[in-house]
Amino acid sequence: MMAPSFESEYEIRGPALIHPPMTKAMQNRSSSQSAEILARRDDFVPTALNAPETAAATPPSDWQTAMKRAVRSSAELRRILDLPAARGVTAEQSFPTFVPWEFIRRIRPGDENDPLLKQVLPQPGEDSIEDEQDDYPAFSADPVGDLDAAVASGLLHKYHGRALMITSGACGVHCRYCFRREFPYSQVCSSTDQWRPAVEYIRRHTEIDEVLLSGGDPLTMVDSSIERLMDAIESIPHVRRLRIHSRMPIVIPQRLTKSLVSRLTSSRLAIWFVVHVNHPNELDADLLARLGALVRAGIPVLNQAVLLRGVNDDAATLIELCRKLVDHRIQPYYLHQLDRVRGASHFEVSVAKGTRLMRVLRASLPGYAVPTYVREEPGADSKTLLPISRELSGKRCT
Question: Does domain 147-397 fall into CATH 3.40.225.10?
Answer without folding.
Answer: no
